Amino acid sequence: MDPISDAIRLEGARYALLRRLAPSMRHHLVVNLQPIGMIYEVLDKRLLAAEPQLAQIKDSAARMNGFARAAVQSCLDVMTWLTPEEGATSTVAEGVQECMGLLNGNFNFRGFSIANEAGACTLTVSRPGIRSVLTACMLACTDERSRPADLVLRADAGNGEVALTIALADNMSTDCFPNDGAYRDITWADVGAIAAAESIGVSHDEQLVRITFPGIIPTVPLTVD
Amino acid sequence: MDPISDAIRLEGARYALLRRLAPSMRHHLVVNLQPIGMIYEVLDKRLLAAEPQLAQIKDSAARMNGFARAAVQSCLDVMTWLTPEEGATSTVAEGVQECMGLLNGNFNFRGFSIANEAGACTLTVSRPGIRSVLTACMLACTDERSRPADLVLRADAGNGEVALTIALADNMSTDCFPNDGAYRDITWADVGAIAAAESIGVSHDEQLVRITFPGIIPTVPLTVD
């Protein structure tokens, strides 16, 4: 076997992470599209009325258009999980919310809960960095457990850097499903490859994952939106 | 450096391929959404008429809904490039058209042309297989060239298998842009890893790429649509 570079190990880790995030990405792609059909059915019925109420029809059409516009945004946003925008930043609070939003369904299904106690930390970090390292850590620390757990996220900012911690404690959840359908487990080797590429520090034991982000002094508006 | 398995090399190849296909995937996600806003503007103006023409308004609303439905389908379809559907099949002709549809814009931009002379080959092959191996081959054989070329795709079915060939000939295109913005070149090592995983044979020289698919005897309807 020829030698394989760290670059390919990194690509492998990023691929596995994408595969694990894919079901949530799919949901975000279509979530704004599904209401359009329902609003259309109502609008179409309203047109059949003896005296159609144009204000209501106007409102339904505007709502259809609003969901379509939101769908464009969510499609473009989902694609940035695949192709990160160079130099994009987000606050820690935004990053945590975004990652939880993407993984919550997956976690609930498996019997894990996530509590966000990271608060409104406004320190700016790399958006691709927090997205990839936090989701990889959340998957790695749950994939390696044989039983469900409760996760608590906390943030501790100081000295221009942020430490984000994930505390894990067994829970008694019985309403959980195994991870069998998943592409494969995310390993700490995957996390290490991604974290190194993003210049983010990660340490972990069975009860605590600690992610250390170097803060960014924003030279551009804080968010890309 | 610890040893890295063939599995990770394969994941690395699949990741690089996804990154190269991402701009086309993004386009397919939003292509059906963009007309909705234009139709809405027309519908909204029609509602302002002294005597609104309800039939036209009904038609506009139906078209908005039609594009939204098509967008759901294209979103779900794009996601299957990331998460292949196990056991999905397509005919060779469908697979070739789908891959050309995804890569045409990329190729034209770089000064390459693609002619599809594969015809209406109805032999059934693995859909994830033809998608990943054909796109990887098309990128690998063009990435390694220093000048633009014309590509001709042909199919030769027999003995229950299909050979798909890509013939390359230099062209005089000057209306071309370098590949600098691309994530990275797709290499023949990437192609080899993906082809092996899909049980597809690939051989190549500078003028010809030959892809050998084992045919599938369809036990289910020929297409997944």
Describe the structure in your own words.
The structure is a homodimer of 225-residue chains. Chain A contains 6 helices and 7 strands; from the N terminus they run αααβαββαββαββ. The longest helix of chain A is centred in the N-terminal third of the chain and has 29 residues, at 54-82. The mean pLDDT of chain A is 91. With 225 residues, chain A is an alpha+beta fold. In chain A, the strands form 2 sheets. Chain A has a 5-stranded mixed β-sheet, with helices on one face. Chain A has 2 domains: 6-82; 89-214, Histidine kinase-like ATPase, C-terminal domain (Heat Shock Protein 90, 2-Layer Sandwich), CATH 3.30.565. In chain A, helix 1 (6-30) packs across helix 4, helix 2 packs antiparallel against helix 3 (54-82) and helix 5 runs antiparallel to helix 6. At the A-B interface, helix 1, helix 2 and helix 3 of A face helix 1, helix 2 and helix 3 of B.
- Low-pLDDT segments of chain A: none
Biggest interface, and residues per chain? Answer: A-B, 53 and 53 residues
User: What is the name of the CATH architecture of the largest domain in chain A?
Assistant: 2-Layer Sandwich
Mean model confidence by pLDDT of chain A: 91
**What is the total number of structural domains of chain A?**
2
**Could you say what the CATH topology of the largest domain in chain A is called?**
Heat Shock Protein 90
What Rg of chain A is obtained from the alpha carbons, in whole angstroms?
21 Å
CATH homologous superfamily title of the largest domain in chain A = Histidine kinase-like ATPase, C-terminal domain
For this structure, the quaternary state is homodimer
What is the element string of chain A, with H for helices and E for strands?
HHHEHEEHEEHEE
Largest sheet of chain A: 5 strands, mixed
Discrete helix count of chain A: 6
Name of the level-1 CATH class of the largest domain in chain A? Alpha Beta
* Widest sheet, order of strands of chain A: 2-4-5-7-6
Which percent bin holds the helix content of chain A?
40-55%
Number of strands of chain A: 7
Return the structural class of chain A. Answer: alpha+beta
What share of the residues of chain A does DSSP label as strand, in percent? 15-25%
